[in-house]
Amino acid sequence: MTTANPTAGPAPASPPASAPPQAAAHAPLRGAALLLGTVSLSLATFMNVLDSSIANVSIPAIAGDLGVSPAQGTWVITSFGVANAISVPLTGWLTQRFGAVRLFTMSVLLFVLTSWLCGFASSLEALVFFRVLQGLVAGPMIPLSQTLLLASYPRALAGTALALWGVTTLVAPVVGPLLGGWITENISWPWIFYINVPVGLLAALLTWGIYRDRETPIRKLPIDTVGLSLLVLWVGALQLMLDKGKELDWFASNEIILLAVVAVVAFAVFLVWELTDKHPVVDLRLFARRNFAFGALALSVAYALFFGNVVLLPLWLQQWMGYTATSAGMALAPVGIFAILLTPLVGKKVGQWDPRRMATGAFVVFSTVLWMRSHFTVQTDFIHILIPTLLQGAAMAFFFIPLTTLTLAGIAPDRIPAAAGLSNFVRITAGAMGTSIATTLWDSRAAMHHAHLTEGLVQGQGVFAVTLNQLTASGLSQAQALAQVNRLIDQQAFTRAANDIFLGSAVLFLLLIGLIWLTRRPAPVVGAGAADAGGAH
After folding, report:
1. Is the pTM above the cut of 0.85?
2. Exposed/middle/buried for residue 267 (C-beta within 10 Å: 0-12, 13-18, 19+)
3. DSSP structure string for 247-277
4. Which in 122, 215, 400, 453 has the greatest CB count within 10 A?
């Protein structure tokens, strides 16, 4: 949820994809037009951000219905993230080619269509394909919603406009898990996609009716087709390798080796091409800037850790703790409470306080939250699962805005859209890959813990024999009793594996603090607020 304006309100689960291109100068909207315009843009933003979190608690149900493992079910999340990241660098070019209003309306309508297709998918392959399409068309929606919103208000009220936008993007991740869990449990998982249809159609209709006469200038610009093709190739190959690695036994598989070779070669050629092309799809020279390099790296790695754990927690709750989709959603929803309360303060103070201290505080809280989760056991109750989630919201408020401020500090206004687009591309890609890495590590660590837990068990001896006798005495067959014992051991193994990942992530968050302090502090802006601290608008 980072934007060209470093202080725009962040959406915890899916930050804005790119810097909003500047809209043409039009008189601010007034009265009913301003109200309906704000509602239409907020609806579209809400729908987009909601879609990034609503599926998290539904993965076990989707996987079970489509006959795949929950680990494979996470492809539903990663495929959307990767496709969305790839479409990010194209937002500026597409805006100038088609106009902000037309592009935004087309994106919303195509998002509605692909959401409808996702609901109709009858196989994992079809669902992942439609999620890829959905991610591709979703790219321009959030940055353009901010662009059009800012153009709707007088400049003096830009802070108010951004605050409204920020609250919308923060409420969606709170509602997402609750709504996704309730729909999955009481209706069926396809409806987590179908609900986008009426919302999206209403948003598109209102937006076109209000903004069609406020179109931005259109001009034809060259596009780096070679660079874009290489980008799709190396990102796609790398993500496929991470998603399918465990299933195919990693480098024992020729397919994984081929994907690795394609990813490495395409990435190397991509670097050379982008550094020499006159109109690169991403401006890699930005990494020569100290703040951008270390800021983008800290933001991306932290987001990978954050998003990987956001996906892992509901999987553990539903697969091994007996939570329903609804109760898992309730355990995740409070993450937005402190984020909503504190984000306006962060937006107001980021131009006055040292953003490095703010981001450091966020990383310390993230680390503390994950350390608390690393002590979860199979007996941990709902309240103790809820407390770290509640605290995490405070970290999120101080996470995106200060880090984006640091990353974009000192960059000329005409390069901010490219810088924000590149920063968000790296971050969104890292988030998708973090999900794949977290779920793969979870399975491998669980297998190790299962082996350690069973190595001391001997048939007919000790606690193992007593437990089997009790189970068979209760009416279970020998096979059923063994299956029940194995289930209990798996529960312990996957819980310990989750603890390993939580603890490892906590340590990494502390180590990332060093990257923050390799950046230079932006010059303080006296009286800066959400509208002007970053100087992007």
Report:
1. no
2. middle
3. TTTGGGSHHHHHHHHHHHHHHHHHHHHHHH-
4. 400
Work out the angle at residue 367's Cα, subtended by the Cα atoms of residues 363 and 371, and round it to the nearest 5 degrees: 170
Q: How far, CA to CA in Å, does 335 sit from each of 6, 166, 185? A: 22, 15, 21
Distance CA 424, CA 303 (A): 10
**CB distance 74 to 436 below 8 Å:** yes
- The whole-angstrom separation of Cα 51 and Cα 350 is 29
d(CA 470, CA 474) in angstroms, rounded, equals: 6
Q: Look at residue 116 in the predicted model and tell me its pLDDT.
A: 94
Query: Domain extents for the chain?
Result: 31-223+281-452+489-516, 224-280
Instruction: Classify 495 as helix, strand or coil.
Output: helix
Confidence of residue 326 (pLDDT cuts 50, 70, 90): confident
pLDDT over 90 at 515, yes or no: yes
Question: Is pLDDT of 436 > 90?
Answer: no
pLDDT in tens, 82-110: 888 888 778 878 888 888 899 999 999 99
